[in-house]
Amino acid sequence: MQYRPENPLIIQSDLTLLLETMGPHFTEARDALARFAELVKSPEYVHTWRISPLSLWNAASAGGTVEGVVETLQRFAKYDVPPNVPVWVRETMSRYGRIQMLPDSRGVLLVCVDAPLATHISKLKGVKDLIAEQLSPTTLLIPTLNRGLLKQLLVGHGHPVKDLAGFIDGDKLAMSVREVRLAGKPWGPRSYQHEAAQAFLAGPDNGGEGGSGVVVLPCGAGKTIVGIQAMVRLGMRTLILCTNVTALRQWRDEILDKTTLSEEEVGEFSGERKEVKPVTLTTYQMLTWRKTKDAAFVNMSLFDMERWGLVIYDEVHLLPAPIFRTVAQLQAKRRLGLTATLVREDGLEGDVFALIGPKRFDVPWRDLEHQGWIAAAKCCEVRVDLATEDRYRYAVADDKEKFRMASTNARKAEVAWGIIERHPGARVLVIGMYVDQLKDLSERWGVPLITGETRQKARDELYARFRTGDLRVLILSRVGNFSVDLPDANVAIQVSGTWGSRQEEAQRLGRVLRPKSDGNVAWFYSIVSRDTTEQEFGEKRQLFLTEQGYAYDIEIVP
Q: Which of 13, 64, 100, 437 is the most exposed, having the fewest neighbouring CB atoms within 10 Å of its CB?
């Protein structure tokens, strides 16, 4: 057996990868693994990664090859690569492209690489009902409306479909990028934003796949600009789905500022306005609203109100189930998903792959940090003990109550204020999950709080005061997780979070990643109760950011 002590990677036959953090090649190996593997856990000295079918199919859709994956494993391996691993990688990765969807006047064609594969998939549970006719030993005719459902089903069975069936053009809409000057200098899309839009529109092999897929970029890196470029280059009516009204209006302002579209051409479909225009922005909440639990989703018809040429899904990793069901029937429309992380705690990343499209573009967060496009950030986990009387109550509580007690630990208030005082002059966001906890902090400190119940006008006013510096500290509930453009925020303090949500951790760090005019670093603090389930969940929350190269310092407050 060959032994290379300078290499950091131990590859195991069960497809787990152990990556040592202290060697000279750790950073290079980590960045290479992130293109085709998933981080499982990341304690101090050895990180555990896993190769999965979905990670390999996403790599393949982005232009990765079996040879490239195997070469990476061999290059960084400390010991010989187990012989079953390259075989498994080859077999799994080669599934992408063995089944293709092609256009046909009668629907879409599902074309398999050989007759046995066609027979196999036609016998899978649920597939038979989606097939209209078998045209040849390798070709099945699929009704157009079943296009998405079949892809979703086959991915679940381990058979990714390469969708080349094309798209129906929407109504034309003339627009272009407008000349803008920012801080006295001409504005233009950044190189990676160009690359992301091109990857979406053209597909990795320029073979006609472009028009569906996901672009993954860090918070603060300008995903909105990628969406705008896709709109402009396609020149068609566009529907944009956002997480909330604040995000919707930020999109609208960027579109009006950066393109030649007028206010008469950009509409808002929200609780306050019901405008349907050539470019229409709405929220997931609006689309999934219904009068009662069993009633129909009254606003889903928005998908069919116009001949949309492009549908943009902002924060695509948050898609609710009813939207998934609708997207399954919209496969003939171009679909662009934008997100900072494809992590879904419900395990439905495969549905995003099948129904929105494969990952078309990704870039490591730290690469953009080194280029100056997002702020350098330092992460710190602050562990604070429960009070003695609370420890007794915690010991006898059930699991759910234990997590709540740990999350709302009263001692966190003093610790959080100490962090604020540690950063005089900083713009600070305090973010949490439990509204009662946040209300207590707001009253104790005399600091404004924004929750889901805060009216949009009041939210906008508070955000504006924070941007101008009139407010130095602002408390946010989970409404602050997404798409809040506060470029001067440079300290975020998380006082409670949603169990072990990796995507929430990434989104909250993203609130302070806008580049700083003074060049200073951003700080992200997560306060957890020591020796509790919250500390255990905190370790899981950090996984995605650790994958991106962020390290958490640990402070202990007895």
A: 13
SS3 408: coil
Q: What does residue 76 show for φ and ψ, rounded to 5 degrees?
A: -105, 0
CATH of domain 370-557: 3.40.50.300
| Backbone region of residue 275 per phi and psi (left: phi > 0; alpha: psi in -120 to 50; beta: other values) | beta
- Per the listing, tokens 């990556």 go with 19
CA 435 from chain centre, in angstroms, equals 25
- How far apart, in whole angstroms, are the C-alpha atoms of residue 163 and residue 207? 11
φ, ψ of residue 99 in degrees (nearest 5): -120, 125
Write out pLDDT tens, residues 163-175: 999 899 999 999 9
Q: How many CA atoms lie within 13 A of 194 on its CB side?
A: 5
pLDDT in tens, 312-325: 999 998 888 888 88
**Superfamily designation of domain 181-363:** P-loop containing nucleotide triphosphate hydrolases (3.40.50.300)
Q: In sequence order, which ranges of 141-269 are alpha helices (DSSP H)?
A: 147-156, 191-202, 223-234, 245-258
Q: How far apart are CA 56 and CA 62, in angstroms?
A: 10
Q: Is 389 in a helix, a strand, or coil?
A: helix
Residues contacting residue 500 through CB under 8 Å, at least 6 positions apart: 345, 537, 538, 540, 541
pLDDT by residue (tens digit) across 432-476? 999 999 999 999 999 999 998 999 899 989 999 998 999 999 999
- Phi/psi for 41 (5° steps) reads -155, 155
Return the CA Rg of the chain: 24
Domain extent listing, the chain: 9-93, 99-163, 181-363, 370-557
Listed in order, strand segments (DSSP E) in 322-371 are: 334-339, 359-362
Q: What are phi and psi of 449, to 5 degrees?
A: -125, 135
Place of tokens 């160009």: 194
Do residues 533 and 398 make contact, with C-beta atoms less than 8 angstroms apart?
no
Write down the pTM of the prediction. Answer: 0.85
- The pLDDT > 70 percentage for the chain reads 97
For residue 349, the number of C-alpha atoms closer than 13 Å in the C-beta half-sphere is: 18
Comparing CA positions, the residue from 384, 402, 382 lying closest to residue 392 is: 402
